[in-house]
Amino acid sequence: MWVVQALRRGRAGVDLIAVLALAGTLATGEYLAGALIALMLTSGRWLDAAAERRATRDLRALLRHAPRTARRRTGDTTETVPLADVRIGDRLVVGPGETVPVDGRITGHRAVLDESVLTGESAQVTREIGDPARSGAVNAGSAFELRATATEEHSTYAEIVRLTQQAGAERAPVIRLADRYAAWFLPVALAAAGLAWLLTGDAIRAVAVLVVATPCPLLLAAPVAIVSGISRAARKGVVVRDGAALETLGRARTVCLDKTGTLTSGRPRAFDIATAPGRTPAEVLALAAAVDQYSPHVLAEAITAAAAERGLTLPPVHDVTEQPGRGAVATLADGATATVGQRDTADLPAWARAADNRAALDGAAVAWVSVDDRPVGAVLLRDPVRHDAPRTVRRLREAGVTRLLMITGDRPEPAREIAAVVGLDDVRAQQTPADKVAAVRAERERAVTVMVGDGVNDAPALAAADVGVAMGARGASASSEAADIVLTTDRVDRLADAAQIATRSRRIAVQSALGGMLLSAAAMVLAAFGLLPPAAGALLQQLIDVAVILNALRALRPGRGVGPEIDADTEELVRRFSAEHDDLRDVLEAVREAADRLTAPDSTDALAAVRHVDHLLTTRLLPHEEAEEHELYPALADALGGPETTATMSRAHTEIHRLAHRITTHLAHAEPTGALAPEQHDDLRACLYGLHSVLQLHFAQEEENYFSLSAA
After folding, report:
1. Which one of 258, 292, 454, 497 is the catalytic residue?
2. Which residues are listed as membrane-spanning (predicted)?
């Protein structure tokens, strides 16, 4: 019946061979072979259906997980309402183990969420009051309240479900290739059977040839491989719109990337603090955060976040106001006026001119901190490169990508710097949305092209590419709608995961289809020469079908070269040392500050600054490096391929210890007189600047190579 239905739709597949073989076995009295063919067809279709169910179980889990109702609080009463009735601004209650029904913001108290369904990451996350919570996350802690910021239709989970329902709806080119195989394989099989009958006069040989010809499940091994790849991508937090997108990604040779929000985090971060003589970085940052804590400016948010990360106590301020074009202004407890924001740089002291020059070289924004209109410090902020961006670029090249370029609307200077850091081949800066579309189309003329972006201005370029990839965790919904693939977790290395999965799935799909057909062709030759009777041929064909479908299911498993995976204990270590890196940023600032003090004409406070650095090194930094050497590196050795993979980092530890010891020795020489001798200045300054450079490079290498392994 299914063959008749296919013929009515104008599709003559290899099932037609099986029907002819059945007719031939009836005509020649080979009833055992006919029974085996019937068993082969039905069991093959069942096996294929089971394989596809196995391949799509992760996608179907998303649909099953979709919430249907929400508990809405009105006054002191709570009622369960259909999800469609939830409106923006409603107060919702999410109990333990319940799914967040719509996008919203946490109210009442912090929430502990399991976002694995959305991101593929098993780690639980803590959201503070005011933080956003995405629909689909599961409450892993106590009950909390949520203020809805979106309706069901426009929430994160609903969008992912819509994409998921479309997954596999369109047939990938490799699957159409399987149909083309069937188009020529059907006449070849009929011709072989006809020749065998014509040359030998033995109808049984012709029937035997038809029996071993490829049935339907063989060529369905190709879509099973593609759908298996989609399923594996879903586990990584990558939603693929359809099989064609995955297959095309596997053939991609050019990748175009936006900068902000794709290669960078998309949010400014305080990376350096310059201070006036007599002030400390912690004091300046705390003062800036105290004034900026009520400001809605994006730089103010970065400053307050930096102070919170360091656990600083903010000084009391009052009468906080915003002055357009200047920044935030507040009154301190002693009556002084503190300002954080822009200022005239025409008449700056030497330390401030150096900070302004440093910001220009780094392409950073400067938030000047002033007291009674006198600058006391400067917070330098920039959008940092994602830790996983360089690793992503390397893995994309391993997956077969030969050209990577940045297409961004930002200025050329920071764009080129980031491109050099992550290892891109070309940069197109100051591009309008129309320019981006033109650039993508030009790249498509040369090779299959992927475009990756997160903003509304990226949506046209995503639609213009062969495959559009959207950073969907924090990106604009317009880019997600225009994309073929959406990364639901805020990690660009998921793109490399998807590329490697796509390449492997496509290879397995072609391998399964061609391999099965070659095996069937060999069996047809044996049958034509009378070496394989119909019954034995039917059994052999059944084994071939099982083999190729099982081979197609290999796409569900990780292959070689998909990147290192670490166990839960090692991941906990990685997170611990990554957090310690953030805590040690003030040590780097103190080292740089002490070196600057030695450079200043008046270096009377230089000895105190060096003593402070020595204290920080001996009590905080060196114990951290020792712990990394003896705890983290051995734990990473197995995942990374042996102890040699951490050898260069161990060598950096040795240099850090050497420079720290040299600084301690300088202080010991200064103790008898209570002052640094003039002949010590040059070497001590070189030690401090050298230590600062080594630490910056060492931290960057660890964050890129080791800390990006964490799923957090």
Report:
1. 258
2. 16-41, 181-200, 206-227, 513-532
Same domain, 580 and 528: no
Total count of domains within the chain = 4
Could you give the C-alpha distances from 506 to 175, 230, 256, in angstroms and in order? 10, 11, 22
The answer to whether 110 and 54 are in contact (CB under 8 A) is no
Contacts (Cβ under 8 Å, ≥6 apart) of 179: 11, 13, 219
Residue 65 pLDDT: 62
> How many CA atoms are closer than 13 Å to the CA of 335, on its beta-carbon side?
0
Q: Is 396 a domain residue?
A: no
Chain-centroid distance of CA 385 in Å reads: 13
| Cβ contact 336:371 at 8 Å | yes
What six digits make up the tokens of 380? Answer: 């330098």
Domain edge (last residue) among 332, 364, 382: 382
d(CA 679, CA 697): 29
- Which residues have C-beta within 8 Å of that of residue 444, sequence separation ≥ 6? 464, 465, 466
Q: How far apart are CA 460 and CA 440, in angstroms?
A: 10
Closest among 110, 104, 162, 164 to 135, alpha carbons compared: 104
For 502, the token pair is 């796509």
Q: Is the dihedral of CA 115, 120, 125, 127 positive or negative?
A: negative
Give the Å distances, CA to CA, from 478 to 44, 289, 462. 43, 34, 10
pLDDT at 288: 93
Mention every residue, 6+ apart, whose C-beta is less than 8 A from residue 697: 652
Say if CB 443 and CB 402 are below 8 A apart: no
CATH of the domain at 131: 2.70.150.10
CA distance 688 to 614: 10
Residues 687 and 584 in one domain: yes
Domain with 669 in it: 568-709
> CA 185 to CA 216: how far, in whole Å?
12
CB-based contacts of 123-128 (< 8 A; 24+ apart in sequence): 123/571, 123/711, 123/712, 125/712
Q: Are residues 173 and 223 in the same domain?
A: yes
H or E stretch covering 322: strand 317-323
Grouping H, G, I as helix, E, B as strand and the rest as coil, residue 253 is coil
Q: CA gyration radius for the chain? A: 32
The DSSP bridge partners found for residue 105 are 132, 147
Residue type, 174: V
Q: What 3-state DSSP class applies to 483?
A: coil
What's the pLDDT at 104? Answer: 93
Report d(CA 37, CA 198) in Å as an integer: 24
DSSP class of 364:
-
Q: Indicate the pTM of the whole model.
A: 0.70
Angle, vertex CA 488, rays to CA 486 and CA 491, nearest 5: 100
> Which residue type does 164 have?
T
> How many residues are present in the chain?
712
Exposure of 193 in the CB half-sphere (CA atoms within 13 A): 22
Closest among 146, 123, 121 to 134, alpha carbons compared? 146
Secondary structure letter of residue 296 according to DSSP: -
Three-class SS string for 92-142? EEECCCCECCCCEEEECCCEEEECHHHHCCCCEEEECCCCEECCCCEECCC
Q: Pseudo-torsion of CA 39, 40, 42, 46, nearest 10°?
A: 130
Give yes or no: residues 331 and 310 share one domain: yes
User: Is 157 inside any structural domain?
Assistant: no
What integer pLDDT is reported at residue 181 of this predicted model?
Answer: 66
Tell me the C-alpha distance between 514 and 519, whole Å.
9
pLDDT lower than 50: segments of the chain: 51, 120, 167-171, 174-175, 712
- What is the reported pLDDT for 167? 45
Would you put residue 103 in left (φ > 0), alpha (ψ -120 to 50) or beta? beta
